[in-house]
Design brief:
The chain is mainly alpha-helical. The chain is 78% helix and 5% strand. The chain has helices at residues 9-45, 48-68, 70-76, 78-99, 104-136, 140-192, 212-224, 227-259, 262-286, 292-303, 305-313, 317-331, 334-345, 348-380, 382-397, 399-402, 404-407, 428-437, 469-477, 482-524; strands spanning 198-199, 202-203, 439-446, 449-456, 459-467. It has a 3-stranded antiparallel sheet with strand order 3-4-5. The chain has a two-stranded antiparallel ribbon with strand order 1-2. The longest helix has 53 residues, at 140-192. It is elongated.
Length: 530
């Protein structure tokens, strides 16, 4: 039996950045093809309907593949699936560039195949992240937040580069660039990401192959038995629905009716994206010290309905951009929190299947969002439609509060603080965040009473408790801090002196009372006449 060589330390450290870099390059290429393929259809057929058909075929294949091909990914392995899907996607994109102009039917087939392979490439990389984080001992929420920021930035870059590439090389040239991006992603995974199936240099024994339908049914059974996953997935469905309604109906209509400027359209979209990027950087630093439930609820309340409501209340672009930017910043807590909970809640053997189901349900809200928003605006008018949507979105965001018993399990997913090699100092930001938001136990003396408080971030660990002076003194005596001991002794002396003064005062008061009583008694004595 051959023994595999364990990955070198530098490769272990580079695995997560390498995987995220591969995803980022794939996102850039995907954004380019997202613009290039519809442009190719439009210039070759001149039909907007056919543009929608091709885009719909790719999206439908993406969603179905994420669910139906998950058991196959379990058999092949996440790393092998990622490599095969990336290489296959490069081949399919090349085929679109070579044959996409030959016929509309060929383009639909190739676009569907591209969507199916892209789903497997995305899901397999997503599933690879869990064993890498386990091996590195890093915080799931922090990595998810940092990854979210990188992917958002890549999407912004891809949209910008896509337009330039189409202008410079044409739609066919941009599709070739997308094909190259898949090959670069495959190379990064092959070089940087070790196979999670191999541990300590020993090849992992393959598990018995589970029948396809049994494995598929097992994924649905597991999903239906997890109330938190069902609740999170339902929220993602509505979030995507409302986000799509805003992106394709509300924002364009506001820009058209108020400013009639495509520049404003880009400004609103960029404000939200930049807000998400900035928020992801901040949240990645603070994530291990924040209660997940509170962070998610705050993100939905501040970044949800207000982002829609402002379009019905203001005609000022500056106000719209500011509110959109702030909404993007606070909403950055949602996806990393959900992603971290999925990583920690779902067992490794179920990750591909459960993740595919979650993705399918969450994405189902995207095609509905634009259609429903269009119908609402058509029937009620723009302002009334936005007001109704804002009210509905706010009602949806109340779900984590109403069903708090289920949603509070977000805090129980086993969050860990950051760990690092003892020889390498942590960044200063870790210490600052730990001091401000980490666990805090406070022993306080006020008005002759010792009290104990315990908090972690915004979460109270124990209610305020009154301690006996002897218990507090015993606890402080355990500290190797002479200054603290001296302060306690000084406090004891002050209390002793104060008690002596109070006792002297009471004795004086008692003496005065006794004298007064004696005078009263003298006055009450009977007088005997001679």
């Amino acid at each position: 039996m051959s023994i595999a060589t364990p990955p070198s330390p530098w490769r272990t450290r580079a695995a997560i950045p390498g995987l995220v870099a591969a995803e980022a390059i794939s996102v850039i290429g995907g954004r380019m093809s997202f613009l290039a393929i519809p442009w190719l259809v439009l210039v070759t057929t001149g039909s907007p309907v056919k543009v929608g058909v091709v885009a719909g075929a790719e999206t439908l294949a993406y969603v179905l593949s994420g669910v139906l091909a998950a058991p196959l990914q379990d058999r092949i392995g996440a790393r092998a699936t990622s490599l095969l899907s990336d290489v296959g996607s490069a081949v399919v994109m090349g085929a679109i560039a070579l044959t996409g102009q030959l016929g509309f039917g060929v383009l639909i087939v190739l676009s569907s195949l591209a969507g199916a392979l892209r789903a497997q490439a995305d899901r397999s990389k997503n599933n690879l992240l869990k064993p890498l984080m386990d091996a590195a001992g890093t915080d799931f929420t922090r990595v998810s937040a940092a990854r979210e920021g990188v992917l958002r930035t890549s999407g912004l870059i891809g949209a910008s580069v896509g337009g330039v590439a189409i202008a410079a090389f044409g739609a066919i040239g941009a599709i070739w660039v997308d094909a190259a991006s898949f090959l670069i992603g495959a190379a990064l995974v092959a070089f940087f990401v070790p196979d999670p199936a191999r541990k300590d240099g020993e090849p992992k024994k393959p598990a018995p192959a589970e029948p396809y339908l049994t494995a598929l049914r097992g994924g649905f059974t597991y999903f239906t038995q997890e109330p938190l996953l069902r609740a999170v997935t339902g929220m993602l469905f509505f979030t995507n629905l409302f986000n799509q309604a805003s992106a394709v109906v509300f924002v364009p209509m506001w820009v058209l009716t108020v400013l009639d400027s495509p520049v404003a359209l880009g400004s609103v979209a960029a404000a939200y994206a930049i807000g998400m990027i900035v928020g992801s950087v901040v949240f990645a630093t603070l994530a291990p010290y924040l209660p997940r439930y509170s962070a998610l609820v705050f993100g939905y309340f501040v970044g949800g309905a207000p982002r829609f409501l402002v379009f019905a209340l203001s005609d000022n672009l500056t106000v719209i951009v500011a509110v959109t930017f702030i909404s993007g910043m606070v909403m950055c807590s949602v996806n990393p929190t959900v992603g971290a909970v999925i990583y920690q809640r779902v067992p490794g053997p179920m990750l591909a299947r459960a993740g595919g189901i979650i993705m399918a349900v969450a994405m189902a809200g995207i095609p509905l969002g634009g259609v429903l928003a269009g119908l609402v605006v058509e029937r009620l008018g723009f302002v009334n439609g936005v007001l109704l949507s804002s009210l509905l979105y706010f009602a949806v965001t109340l779900t984590p509060v109403i069903r708090h018993r289920v949603w509070r399990e977000l805090n129980d997913a086993g969050a860990r603080g950051p760990t690092a090699d003892p020889a390498v100092a942590l960044p200063r930001g870790y210490a600052l965040a730990a001091t401000a938001l980490g666990p805090r136990v406070t022993l306080r003396y006020t008005d002759g009473e010792w009290t104990l408080h315990a908090r972690s971030g915004l979460r109270r660990l124990a209610p305020r408790r009154v301690l006996r002076a002897k218990t507090a003194a015993h606890a402080l005596a355990q500290l190797d801090a002479p200054a603290v001991h001296e302060a306690v002794r000084e406090l004891a002396r002050h209390e002793h002196d104060g008690a002596g003064r109070e006792a002297a005062r009471l004795r004086a008061d008692l003496a005065r009372m006794e004298f007064a009583m004696s005078q009263i008694n003298v006055g009450l004595r009977p007088t005997h006449l001679p």
